[in-house]
Design a protein that fits this description.
The complex is a heterodimer of chains A (116) and B (239). Chain A is built from four helices and seven strands. By secondary structure, chain A is α/β, with parallel strands linked by helices. The longest helix of chain A has 13 residues. Chain B is an alpha+beta fold. The chains are: A alpha/beta (116), B alpha+beta (239).
Chain lengths: 116, 239
């Protein structure tokens, strides 16, 4: 079982993520804001962070620039398909996916990142 | 304003990119909810119903967004029609708020104002209120109250939507300025502003079609977005 932090501003999408992760036996904490996510990550030291890139209070990738949390394993979640953004993600985070994603793909990706 | 204008291929490409991004959000929830129900048959009935409700709500949202796009294109082509009728403004505002509450659940939105009836297209004004309140809720902290007030004088009725979010630099944006702003929102971190600006553009277009104006007021903290409707041809509810 891993401790996973979900930073996602869509409550419905966050509920989907949390349900899949909990059904796979993980312990999940959720927040809809970037700043709250950074604080939760500092406090709870999760094994993995699921990070939306478009958050109401800033660019999700700002999370990866915070000195005390930037080494955490992060799966970025985005709706953007621009090459420049995807290239940036390849060098910044452990993995990423473009929304939408199916439940099975999600838990397979999470397992893969946790296993590495 | 609503005549066809010179739009560069780059602007159209940026527009399409922004819109495609916005359409992915409801699709993400629909796909996620449906595959979760399929993948985990042991989920409780309550949770399954919750996911089905999400699918239903997001399908409605997708439909709304497509209607937005159709309306915007009609507006730009000068083909958007106003279907005037006498309506109680407060009733239309409350109707819009009940729709917003379906999405934001327990977020607090208050409304006050006199019962006045005037001529406008209720579909347009319901959409404007929905857009402005959605923007206000998205800008504000989760526990903040969004307040909608209605006032009137001899010339016009004014609906003001106040939130406590970070103050905007906008003042009295034109439809063209708002559309132009959407095309500049392709950077990470800024793209979350695309839908709010689109909502403002739609609101601006609808308010103007109904003979009113839209503007920002920056007194005190937060933002107040106001729109007016002309009081010509009004009748009192007491009559």
């Amino acid at each position: 079982m891993a401790k996973i932090l979900v930073i996602e501003d869509s409550l419905d999408f966050s509920t989907f993520l949390a349900t899949v992760l909990e059904m796979e036996g993980h312990q999940v904490t959720q927040t809809t804001r970037l700043q709250a996510g950074i604080e939760l990550a500092r406090r709870e030291q999760p094994d993995l962070v699921l990070l939306d890139l478009n958050l109401p209070d800033g660019d999700g990738l700002e999370f990866c620039r915070q000195p005390d949390v930037r080494d955490m394993a992060v799966i970025a979640m985005t709706s953007m398909t621009d090459d420049s953004i995807l290239e940036q993600l390849q060098t910044t985070v452990a993995a990423f996916f473009i929304k939408p994603i199916a439940a099975r793909e999600l838990h397979q990706l999470v397992r893969k990142v946790l296993d590495t | 304003m609503n005549e066809s204008s010179d739009v560069s291929p780059l602007s159209i490409a940026q527009w399409l990119s922004t819109i495609a991004h916005e359409l992915r959000a409801p699709l993400a929830t629909i796909k996620g909810a449906a595959t979760t129900v399929i993948e985990y048959p042991q989920l409780s009935r309550e949770r399954v119903v919750g996911f089905l409700e999400s699918i239903d709500a997001e399908a409605d949202r997708l439909t709304d967004m497509l209607d937005f796009l159709i309306d915007l294109s009609r507006f730009q082509l000068g083909a958007l029609k106003v279907r005037y009728s006498f309506n109680a403004l407060l009733e239309v505002v409350e109707d819009a708020l009940s729709e917003v509450k379906l999405r934001y659940g327990d977020r607090l939105v208050t409304v006050e104002g006199p019962d006045i009836r005037l001529l406008f297209d209720p579909r347009h004004i319901r959409q404007v209120v929905t857009c402005l309140v959605n923007n206000a809720l998205a800008r504000s902290a989760a526990d903040a109250v969004v307040h909608v007030s209605i006032s009137s004088d001899a010339r016009r009725a004014v609906v003001a939507v106040h939130d406590t979010g970070a103050p905007t630099t906008l003042d009295r944006p034109t439809f063209e300025q708002l559309l132009d702003q959407v095309t500049r929102l392709n950077e990470p971190g800024l793209r979350s502003l695309a839908l709010p600006v689109l909502r403002l553009a739609v609101s601006q277009a609808f308010v103007e079609l109904n003979g009113g104006q839209l503007w920002f007021e920056r007194e005190g903290s937060g933002n107040t977005v106001c729109f007016s409707l002309p009081m010509t041809n009004t009748v009192s509810l007491e009559e």
